[in-house]
C-alpha cells in the first residue's frame, strides 16, 4: 500500500506520547542512582542495582513487538493498546519509586518501571515506520527525537525546579527528599496524559490483507520459534547497526548509572556521605552527616540539571534536522558518525572541566549524540527490514541496546573504569571512548537505502 505523506502536526501527534515516555526515562536515568545512594548503596554497587532496566528490555521489547505485529482492533488499532497498558503501569511505578523505604524495594520498583516503559516505547518506534512512507522515515524519527529532547530537559530539571519554588530538598538519613518525590509524581501525570493524547489523535492502518492476517492469527502459536527465526534471519545492515548500538548504549548506561557519583565527587567535591564513617549517636557527628548529606543532595540536583542540557541540545539537533529532512534527503551514516564522535569528546572533557559550569559544554556535545542515537539507527533500520515484521524486528533490535547495558551492570563499568584508576570520574572517560568507537563503526554501513532513502 502506498502511504500518503503526513504533515508536521500529524507526525507530532503520532509521536507526542514519547514526551511521557522520556519523562519516565529521564527521571529514572537522572535520579535513580541518587535514590540508591540516599538509601545507602555503595557507588560500586550502583551499576548492578541498575541491571533490572536492561534485563526487562531484553525480555519485554521483542515480546511486545511480536504481539503488536499480531494485534488489530478496529477502534484501538495495532500499537495503541500497548501504549495504554504501559502508560498505566509506568505512571503507578513512578509514583511509588521515590517512596521506597529500603534499597531492595527501590531496585524492585526500577524493575517494574523499566518493564512498563518498554511496553509503551517499543510500539512507538514501530508506529512511525507503520504510518510513514519510506521517504519520510528520517523526518518521523527526528520529530520523535525532538519531543524526546523536550521531555529529557524538562524532567531532568524537575527536582531543581520544585525545590526552587519551595519544596524541601532536605531529608532525614535514608529518606528521599520531597523535591524528588514531587518530581516523580509530576512525571507520572505527564506520562499518562501524553500517551492518551497520542491515542486519541492518531489513526493506524489496518493490515493490508485482512483475510491473510486473520488466518495467521488462528494458526498454532509459534511465538518463541518465530522470534528465534527472526533473530537468525536478521539483515546484514541490522547486524552492523547492532555493533554501533552496542558501544553507544554501553556509554549511556555508564553515564546514567555513574554520572551522579562521578560528578558530585570530581567536579562538585561533595560525595555522598557514608553512614559508617560517622558516629550518629554523637550530636556533632550527626550534624556533620546532615550537612554533608544536604551538600550531596544539592550537588545531585545540579548534576540532574546539567544532565538536562543533553536533552536540550538533542532537541536543537532534532529541530535542525526536522527542518532539513522535511525537504531534503540526508546522509544518515555520516550524521550519526559525527554526532557520536562529538558526544565522545563531551564525556572525556568531564575529567578536565575547571568548574561545574563547564559541564554545560560536555552535556551539549553529549546531546548531539543522544539526538542521533534516538533517530538515525531507527531510520536506517526501517529502510532495511520487511515492513510486515517491523514490530518484531524493532523489538529484536533492542537486544543491541540492552545486552551492552547488562554487560556494563554485571561488572563491565567497574572493570573498565578501574583500568584507568580508582577515581569514579574515569567511568566518564570510558563512556567517551565507547562513543568514539561507536562513531567510527558507522563506516561499516554500506547499504545505500539505509544510508539515504533511494527513490524507487
Automatic annotation (TrEMBL):
The keyword Transport applies. Keywords: Membrane, Transmembrane, Transmembrane helix, Transport. Its main location: membrane. The chain crosses the membrane at residues 12-36, 48-68, 80-97, 103-121, 141-162, 182-200, 241-259, 303-322, 334-352, 358-380, 392-413, 425-445. GO terms for molecular function: transmembrane transporter activity. It is found in: Membrane. InterPro entries: MFS (IPR011701), MFS_trans_sf (IPR036259). It comes from the Bacteria. Gene3D superfamilies: MFS general substrate transporter like domains (1.20.1250.20). This is Maltose/moltooligosaccharide transporter. It comes from Ulvibacter litoralis.
Amino acid at each position: 500500500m502506498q502511504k500518503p505523506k503526513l504533515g508536521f502536526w500529524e507526525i507530532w501527534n503520532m509521536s507526542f506520547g514519547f514526551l511521557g515516555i522520556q519523562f519516565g526515562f529521564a527521571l529514572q536515568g537522572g535520579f535513580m542512582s541518587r535514590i540508591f545512594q540516599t538509601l545507602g548503596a555503595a557507588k560500586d554497587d550502583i551499576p548492578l542495582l541498575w541491571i533490572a532496566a536492561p534485563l526487562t528490555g531484553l525480555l519485554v521489547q521483542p515480546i511486545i513487538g511480536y504481539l503488536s505485529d499480531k494485534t488489530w482492533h478496529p477502534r484501538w488499532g495495532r500499537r495503541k493498546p500497548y501504549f495504554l497498558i504501559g502508560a498505566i503501569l509506568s505512571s503507578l511505578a513512578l509514583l511509588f519509586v521515590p517512596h521506597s523505604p529500603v534499597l531492595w524495594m527501590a531496585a524492585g520498583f526500577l524493575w517494574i518501571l523499566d518493564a512498563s516503559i518498554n511496553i509503551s516505547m517499543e510500539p512507538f518506534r514501530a508506529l512511525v515506520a507503520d504510518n510513514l512512507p519510506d521517504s519520510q522515515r528520517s523526518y518521523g524519527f527526528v520529530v520523535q527525537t525532538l519531543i524526546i529532547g523536550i521531555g529529557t530537559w524538562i524532567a531532568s530539571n524537575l527536582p531543581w525546579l520544585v525545590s526552587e519554588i519551595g519544596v524541601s530538598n532536605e531529608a532525614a538519613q535514608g529518606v528521599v527528599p520531597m523535591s524528588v518525590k514531587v518530581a516523580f509524581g509530576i512525571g507520572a501525570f505527564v506520562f499518562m496524559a501524553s500517551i492518551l493524547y497520542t491515542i486519541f489523535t492518531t489513526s493506524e492502518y489496518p493490515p493490508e490483507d485482512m483475510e491473510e492476517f486473520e488466518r495467521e492469527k488462528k494458526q498454532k502459536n509459534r511465538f518463541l520459534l518465530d522470534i528465534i527465526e527472526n533473530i537468525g534471519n536478521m539483515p546484514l545492515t541490522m547486524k552492523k547497526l547492532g555493533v554501533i548500538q552496542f558501544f553507544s548504549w554501553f556509554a549511556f548506561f555508564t553515564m546514567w548509572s555513574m554520572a551522579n557519583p562521578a560528578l558530585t565527587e570530581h567536579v562538585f567535591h561533595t560525595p555522598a556521605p557514608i553512614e559508617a564513617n560517622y558516629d550518629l549517636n554523637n550530636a556533632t557527628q550527626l550534624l556533620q552527616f546532615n550537612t554533608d548529606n544536604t551538600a550531596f543532595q544539592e550537588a545531585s540536583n545540579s548534576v540532574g540539571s546539567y544532565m538536562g542540557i543533553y536533552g536540550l541540545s538533542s532537541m536543537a539537533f532534532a529541530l535542525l534536522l526536522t527542518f532539513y529532512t522535511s525537504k531534503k534527503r540526508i546522509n544518515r551514516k555520516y550524521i550519526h558518525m559525527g554526532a557520536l564522535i562529538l558526544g565522545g569528546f563531551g564525556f572525556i572533557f568531564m575529567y578536565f572541566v575547571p568548574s561545574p559550569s563547564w559541564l554545560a559544554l560536555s552535556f551539549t556535545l553529549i546531546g548531539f549524540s543522544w539526538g542521533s542515537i534516538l533517530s538515525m539507527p531507527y531510520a536506517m533500520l526501517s529502510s532495511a527490514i520487511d515492513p510486515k515484521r517491523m514490530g518484531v524486528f524493532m523489538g529484536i533490535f533492542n537486544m543491541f541496546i540492552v545486552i551492552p547495558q547488562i554487560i556494563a551492570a554485571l561488572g563491565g563499568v567497574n572493570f573498565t573504569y578501574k583500568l584507568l584508576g580508582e577515581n569514579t570520574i574515569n567511568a566518564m572517560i570510558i563512556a567517551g571512548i565507547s562513543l568514539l568507537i561507536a562513531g567510527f563503526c558507522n563506516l561499516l554501513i554500506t547499504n545505500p537505502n539505509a544510508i539515504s532513502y533511494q527513490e524507487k
